[in-house]
Fold this protein.
Amino acid sequence: MNLKNKISLIFVIFLNIVNLYFIVELSSYDEMLSYVENEGEKITSLDKTVAVFMFTSMINLLFVCIVFLKNTILPGNIKQ
């Protein structure tokens, strides 16, 4: 694995960690208020949205970390 691939994978891991930070911050809000033209106000809960974002972010982080560790620990010249 060359340096360019390692840097790009580390950058993606960093972005995923920042994404997790924002998801945790979003989970501290109780509800989201939006204004609809015809109906006035619409209040929605963020629990399900935060759960979906957290799940997809964790799966993405796990996948990228597995690829990074596989390419770091088992370089391409080793036959399995």
In short: The first strand starts at residue 31 and ends at 36. The helical segments are 3-27, 47-73.
